[in-house]
């Protein structure tokens, strides 16, 4: 199939953006930093049938949104979100389900110099494996080490990189040398657009905390409220004679904890233990190499030749 020229592709892309904004009431603004083509293909395959991912130039995205503001004024809230390597993830499904799928699509990746760290990186105390010639990295980063049996050993846990720091060349080489891949890259949700409302993912946790404190039920706080209420009812049932099916197992455990202890392993019979102690250990003879066998054969040949020479000289002397 021939590729469309730019004069045809650009208007079609505008129409596609507008059509998706009309068809889908919810979408994510996702960041795609350090996401390769193969990983993006796997993400699109996992979201097939549940969400549509659309990437494009930020200027083109903003232009399409501005041209559609007359039909949907709420889209104006999305205009400040388009900076950096971002795109849309449109969906009609539950936002929590799509969020879990995006988190599952992340892959671990090694560090490289110049990257901004999204999390803290800890180097555990361990025997690193490299020889003493690699101690320059540890001295540069201020890591306390010692030489143990010809290898570098880190004495205590250290954090060479913190969240938001820029990875230097020494840190990147050290983590690569230790085979540590602390980062995970994928589509990161930056903003959520839901029926005209826009908010960040961190805002959901803040709303749930406030609603739990003031006792106001919302979609974000109801699961936690139900769990807290269940714990209260369970505690009341344990202290009183009132009961319900879910409290029966808890009451049985408190009445007889030994009934829930795992069964001990079956002991071996005495005759089997005695047999294991008396049984001799097998001794494996080392296999001789081909070179060793060749040397032995040469010695045998040389010895036979010397014996034949001595016998011939003895026969000659006897005849004389």
Automatic annotation (TrEMBL):
Q: Name one Pfam family in it.
A: RL10P_insert
The record's Gene Ontology biological-process terms are: cytoplasmic translation; ribosomal large subunit assembly
Which GO cellular component terms are attached? Answer: cytosolic large ribosomal subunit
Q: Does the keyword Ribonucleoprotein apply?
A: yes
UniProt-listed CDD domains: Ribosomal_P0_L10e (cd05795)
Function description = Ribosomal protein P0 is the functional equivalent of E.coli protein L10.
Q: What is this protein called?
A: Large ribosomal subunit protein uL10
């Amino acid at each position: 199939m021939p590729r469309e020229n730019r004069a045809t592709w650009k208007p079609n892309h505008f129409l596609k953006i507008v059509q998706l904004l009309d068809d889908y009431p919810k979408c994510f603004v996702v960041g795609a930093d350090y996401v390769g083509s193969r990983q993006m293909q796997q993400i699109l395959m996992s979201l097939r049938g549940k969400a549509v991912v659309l990437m494009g130039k930020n200027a083109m995205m903003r232009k399409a949104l501005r041209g559609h503001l007359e039909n949907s004024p709420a889209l104006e809230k999305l205009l400040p979100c388009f900076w950096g390597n971002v795109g849309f993830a449109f969906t009609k499904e539950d936002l929590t389900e799509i969020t879990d799928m995006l988190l599952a699509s992340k892959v671990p990746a090694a560090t490289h110099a110049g990257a901004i760290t999204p999390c803290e990186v800890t180097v555990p105390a361990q025997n690193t494996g490299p020889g003493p010639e690699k101690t320059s990295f540890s001295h540069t980063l201020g890591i306390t080490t010692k030489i143990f049996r010809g290898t570098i050993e880190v004495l205590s846990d250290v954090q060479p990189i913190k969240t938001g720091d820029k990875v230097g060349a020494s840190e990147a080489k050290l983590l690569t040398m230790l085979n540590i891949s602390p980062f995970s890259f994928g589509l990161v949700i930056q903003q959520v657009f839901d029926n005209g409302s826009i908010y960040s993912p961190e805002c959901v946790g803040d709303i749930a905390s406030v609603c739990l404190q003031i006792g106001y039920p919302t979609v974000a706080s109801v699961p936690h409220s139900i769990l807290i209420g269940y714990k209260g009812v369970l505690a009341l049932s344990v202290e009183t004679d009132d009961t319900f099916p879910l409290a029966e197992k808890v009451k049985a455990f408190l009445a007889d904890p030994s009934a829930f202890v795992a069964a001990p392993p079956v002991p071996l019979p005495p005759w089997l233990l005695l047999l294991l102690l008396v049984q001799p250990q097998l001794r494996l003879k080392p296999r001789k190499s081909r070179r060793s066998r060749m040397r032995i054969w040469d010695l045998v040949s040389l010895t036979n030749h010397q014996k034949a020479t001595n016998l011939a000289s003895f026969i000659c002397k006897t005849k004389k």
